[in-house]
Amino acid sequence: MRLTKFTDLALRTVMRLAVSEEGEALTTREVAEAIAAPYTHTAKAVARLQHLGVLEARRGRGGGLVLTGFGLRASVGWLVRALEGDEEVVACEGDTPCPLRAACRLRGALRTAQQAFYAALDEFTVRDLVASPTGPVLVGLSLRTPDRRPG
Questions:
Q1: How many angstroms separate the CA atoms of 52 and 55, rounded?
Q2: In the chain, which ranges are continuous DSSP H helix?
Q3: Which of 69, 59, 51, 70 is nearest to 10 (CA)?
Q4: Three-class DSSP category at 56
Q5: Residue among 46, 45, 65, 47 nearest 56 (CA)
Q6: Nearest of 89, 149, 151, 147 to residue 118 by alpha carbon
Q7: What is the reported pTM?
Q8: Residue 28: how many CB atoms within 10 A of its CB?
């Protein structure tokens, strides 16, 4: 299985927000810089994550992005399903339908593998993803961004 770049970016966004200190709200630009992603792509991922209830975007002074409690407890499998959609691994129909589609066992095998993939991801929460050693590395990335150099 291969995740889309959008899902990868959204997961990295969630992971960075998961290690924010209590009361710390990062801007979309700060998150994008920390995870080495384009601002516009990060903004689209933020909008989708907000729609899913994974994060809140607060406006005004002291505003920014904050991961919700739900977002921290969400299973990675649920999150990937929500971001990737429920499409099959292969497109048997489409513009040029596969001539084997009526009697093919590959489609079922791939569907079973996809379900196993998601089931394995269901075992992990966002909180699990940012456990040590990942969490401290994520925090360190933010310290190296142009606006937040240590010292």
A1: 8
A2: 5-18, 28-34, 39-51, 69-73, 76-84, 106-122, 126-129, 134-143
A3: 51
A4: strand
A5: 65
A6: 89
A7: 0.82
A8: 19
Phi and psi based region of residue 51 (left: phi greater than 0; alpha: psi -120 to 50; beta: remaining): alpha
Q: Tens-of-pLDDT digits for all 151 residues of the chain? A: 788 999 999 999 999 999 888 778 889 999 999 999 999 999 999 999 999 999 999 887 778 999 999 999 999 999 999 999 878 777 777 788 888 877 888 888 988 999 999 999 999 999 999 887 777 777 777 655 455 444 4
Q: Which amino acid is at 36?
A: A
Tokens of 140: 């360190």
Q: Which two tokens stand for residue 42?
A: 């990060």
Pairing of strands 55-58, 64-67: antiparallel
